[in-house]
Amino acid sequence: MQLIHKDLLGIQQLTVDEINLILDTAETMKMVLQANSKRTAHLQGKSIVTLFYENSTRTRLSFEMASKFMSAASANIATSSSSVNKGESLVDTARTIDMMATDILIMRHGESGAPHLIAPRVKASVINAGDGMNEHPTQALLDFFTMRQKKGGIKGLRVAIIGDVLHSRVARSNLWGLIKLGAEVRLAAPPTMMPVGLAEMGAVVCPSVRDAVQGADVIMALRIQLERMRTAMFPSISEYARFFALDDDAIRSAKPDAIIMHPGPCNHGVEMPTHIYDSSQSVINEQVTNGVAVRMAIMYLLQARRNVG
Amino acid sequence: MRMVVENGHVVDPATGFTGVRPVYIEHGLISDGFEEQPDRIIDATGLAVFPGLIDAHCHLREPGHEYREDIVSGTKSAAKGGFTTVACMPNTVPVCDHAALVRFIKEKSAKEGYARVLPIGALSKEQKGLELAEIGLMAAEGIVAVSDDGRPVERADIMRKGMLYANHFGLTVISHCEDLSLAEGGHMNEGLWSTTLGLRGIPTVSESMMVARECLLSEYLELPVHIAHVSTRASVDLIRAAKARGVQVSAETCPHYFTLTDQACQGFDTNAKMNPPLRAQEDVDAIIKGLQDGTIDMIATDHAPHHSDEKDLEFGLANNGIVGFETALALGYTFLVRTGFLTLPQWLATMTTNPAKLLQPDLGTLTPGRPADLVLVDLENPFIFDRDAMLSKARNTPFHGWELYGQVQLTICDGRVTYE
Fold first, then answer.
1. Among A41, A179, A276, B2, which residue's beta carbon has the most beta carbons within 10 A?
2. Contact with chain A for residue B317, Cβ under 8 A
3. Do β-strands B146-147 and B173-175 pair in parallel, antiparallel, or remain unpaired?
4. Average pLDDT of B306-335?
5. Where are the domains of chain B?
6. Which helix (H) or strand (E) holds A129?
7. What is the pLDDT of residues A206-265, one digit of tens each?
8. Can you tell me the distance from the alpha carbon of B213 to that of B238, in angstroms, rounded to the nearest whole number?
9. C-alpha span between B305 and B85 (Å, rounded)
C-alpha cells in the first residue's frame, strides 16, 4: 500500500487506509527517534525545502529535524510577505523552487488553498504545513497518532475540541479526520468563534465547555488566534478565560483518564491554566515528539510513492 | 442598406408575437417591408430570431484596465453573446463621474464598437460615497442611470440625495447592495462550504440588509431604485414585498446566481469567486422563483473581465468577478427555459424589454421603426462552451466545458452585422 496522491494537502483528501498507513509508519519512525543513533537513510540524496509565509517554531523545526534524521538535504525559506504586490507571485516562487530539483516542498501560507494552487504546477510533492484557516494535516495526524498511542484506537472515542474553532485549521483537520475515523467530536467556543455548518458535517456543537467535555476521552484546547481576528471576537482575555478556558471543574466532568492536548503554542492562563498544562493528564509535550515521527513517516511515504511513480 | 431575415422563428416579447415571419431591415431600422431588392437575404431556417439582447450591467474596463478588456473587445464579446446594447458601469480608472469620460465612451464605442454602449455614471465623486458626482452634466452627455457599482453607497443620506438628484434628470439609481461591515474580509458565501474550505464567509444578510434600506428609501421618497445582482433569498423576499405595496423597485440577477452554488468554490477555484458571492441552493431556488413571478425583472451579466494574473492566485488574493457576455443567453435558455421554469417569451423579456424599460425604452423589440437590433440563435443543437473561443480578452469563467443550448449564429446591431 502507498499514498494515493503526490501531495499531502489536507485530511479531506486522505482515505482512512491512508491515515492508518501514516500512523503505522510513524510507529516505526518513533522508534528511530528513541534509538541511540537517530539516523536513517530513507531520504538520502533527496532535497526538501520549507517555504513558510507565516511564523512557525515547532512545525518548521519538526520538519527540519525529521529531514535531517532521514539524511535529506534541506533548505528553508521564511518570508513574511504574502502579498503579490510586494514581489513574486506564489506560483512563480514555487516553480522556481521546483526547478532546483526539489523533491518535497513543505509550505505554510496565510491564505486558505495556497498549497492547492501550487501542487498541480510543481513536480515536487507538496506538504501543507498550514494554509490560512483551512487545514493543518500534519498536526492532525500527530494528534491522531497521540490519541491512538494513548487510547489504543480512535473509533468510538469522544473528543472535545474547545476554543477558537472559527480560525483554527487544526480544528478543521482534526474534525475531518476524527469523523472519518469514527470518533465523536464535540465542540465548544464563544458563539462568535464557531463557524456555521459544523453540525451538518457531523460534529456536535455544544452550548458550553463543560457540556463538550462531558464524558470525553480526549480534550483538545485550541490557541486563540489573535493574528487572524479582523475585529475582536470576545470582550477581553480575562472574560474568555472565565467562560471558555478549560478548568478543573470541566476536566472533572470528563473521563478520569482523559488526555489533554493542545497544538501549541499555548497561552497559559487563557486556554488553560498552567497546572492543567503541566498535569499528568496532559500529553502536550509528547505531541511535539510525535510530530517529528509523523512528519518522518509522511515524507518517507511521499518519497516512496515518488520512487514508484 | 436593406436586409431581410427569412424563415426564422421570431419571438418578440414586447408585442407578444411568436411565429415564423420575415424581419425587414432598412437604413438601420426595423421596417414593415420594402419593394426594392434587399442587399442581403439571411436565411434563418431552423433558427430563432430574437430582439438584440440588452445588458443592464457590465464592466468594459476602458479606460484604465485595457489589459483586462476594452470597448472593442468587450463589445465584440457582447455581440458574440447576442447583445446589441450594453450598459457599462462607471468603476473605471478614472471613475466615470464626469461628462468628458461619458463622451469618450459614447464616441469611442460608436466609432469602433460592436454594440451600442450606454454609459452609467457614478453616483458619487470617485465612487467614494461622500459627494454627488456631476450627474446633470453626465446626463446631458447621455448616461442612462447612475450607480457606484463595485461598491455600496454606505451612507444612507448620500443614497437619498443621489435618488432625489438623479430623478430630477430622469435617471434611476442602480444600487450595489452590500453592508461592508458584515462583508469585508469575506471571500465566499458564509455557509457549509466556507467552513469546509476555511475561507472567510460573506453572510447573505450583508446584501439583504442593504436591499431593505433601498426599498425603504425608495418607498419614503416615492422614487424608483434598481437593485443590482440580487443573489439571496432574503433579498428576493424583500423586493417582492416592496413591489406588493407599490414601491418603485426593480431588480436584476445574473446567470451565475441561478446556475451555480457556493459549492463551485470547491478546490479553491477562483473562477467561482465573485461579489456578491455564489450562494446556497435555497438562494438559487428563490432567484428562480423571483424570475418566475416577476419579482426579479431582468437578467444582467455583470461581465467582469480579469487578467489570468489576477485570478491565478491564492483564493483570498484573487479578484472578484467572471465574464458573462458569451454565456448569458445559453445559460438562461438552458437552465430556465429548457427546464420549464420560464416560458421562452417570459425569459426573453428579462433580457430585452425589461432592461429596455430601465435604460432606453425604444429598444428591445422588433417593432417597425425601432433600431434594427436582432440575434439569430440555434436553440436545437447543443454546444460545448469553450472559454478559449471567447472574443473577450479575459478567460475567467466557471462554465468552460459546459454543454449548453442556445448558440448565437448572427447578431445585427443598428442594421449592421456585428457577429457572424
1. A276
2. yes
3. parallel
4. 97
5. 52-364
6. strand A125-131
7. 999 999 999 999 999 999 887 777 678 888 888 999 999 999 999 999 999 999 999 999
8. 10
9. 18
Residue B349 and residue B250 in contact, taking contact as beta carbons nearer than 8 Å:
no
Q: What sign does the CA torsion over B8, B78, B260, B249 have?
A: negative
What whole-number distance in Å separates Cα of residue A299 and Cα of residue A282?
28
Q: What is the pLDDT of residues B216-241, one digit of tens each?
A: 999 999 999 999 999 999 999 999 99
Give mean pLDDT, residues B31-59: 97
Reply yes or no on whether B302 is catalytic: yes
On whether the A11-134+288-308 domain is CATH 2.30.40.10, my answer is no
Identify which of B28, B42, B1, B38 has the alpha carbon closest to the alpha carbon of residue B369: B28
Among candidates A114, A200, A201 on the partner chain, residue whose Cβ is nearest the Cβ of B314: A114
Give the CATH class of B52-364.
alpha beta
Separation between Cα atoms, residue A194 and residue A205, nearest integer Å? 9
Tell me how crowded residue B6 is: count the other CB atoms within 10 A of its CB: 16
Please list every residue in chain A whose beta carbon sits closer than 8 Å to the beta carbon of residue B192.
Answer: 196-197, 200-201
**Residue A289, exposed/middle/buried by CB under 10 A (0-12, 13-18, 19+)?**
middle
Nine-digit cell string for A134: 483551512
- Residue B401 burial (CB < 10 Å; 0-12/13-18/19+)? exposed
**Alpha helix locations (H) across chain A?**
16-34, 58-69, 90-98, 114-118, 137-151, 169-181, 209-213, 237-244, 248-253, 274-277, 284-308
Domain boundaries, chain A: 11-134+288-308, 137-284
- Indicate if the pLDDT at residue A85 is higher than 60: no
Which amino acid type is present at position A200? E
For residues B405 and A132, give the distance between their C-alpha atoms in angstroms, rounded to a whole number: 40
Residue of B302, B309, B362, B388 marked catalytic = B302
Using a CB-CB cut-off of 8 Å, the residues of chain B touching A113 are 197-199, 268, 314-316
pLDDT at A83 (0 to 100): 45
Q: Chain B: residue nearest A131 by CA?
A: B198
Residue B112 CB burial class (10 angstroms; 0-12, 13-18, ≥19): exposed
CATH classification code of A137-284: 3.40.50.1370
The contacts of residue B198 (CB under 8 Å, 6+ apart) are A112, A113, A131, A132, A133, A134, A135, A169, A172
Question: Cα separation of B415 and B372, whole Å?
Answer: 5
Residues A180 and A259: their CA atoms lie apart, in Å, by 21
What contacts A231, CB < 8 A, 6 or more positions away?
A: none
SS (H, E, C) B118-159: EECECCEHHHCCCCECCHHHHHHHCCCCEECCCCCCCCHHHH
Tell if the CB–CB gap between A113 and B200 is shorter than 8 Å.
Answer: no
Q: Angle of helix A284-308 relative to helix A58-69, nearest 10 degrees?
A: 50
Over range B255-269, report the average pLDDT: 98
Largest Cα span, chain A: 55
Band of residue A78 on the pLDDT scale cut at 50, 70, 90: confident
Q: Does position A89 have pLDDT exceeding 80, yes or no?
A: yes
Q: How far apart are CA A236 and CA A242, in angstroms?
A: 10
Q: What is the average pLDDT across B193-214?
A: 97
| E strand spans, B224-327 | 225-227, 249-253, 298-299
Indicate if the pLDDT at residue A87 is higher than 80. Answer: no
Per CATH, A11-134+288-308 and A137-284 having the same topology is answered yes
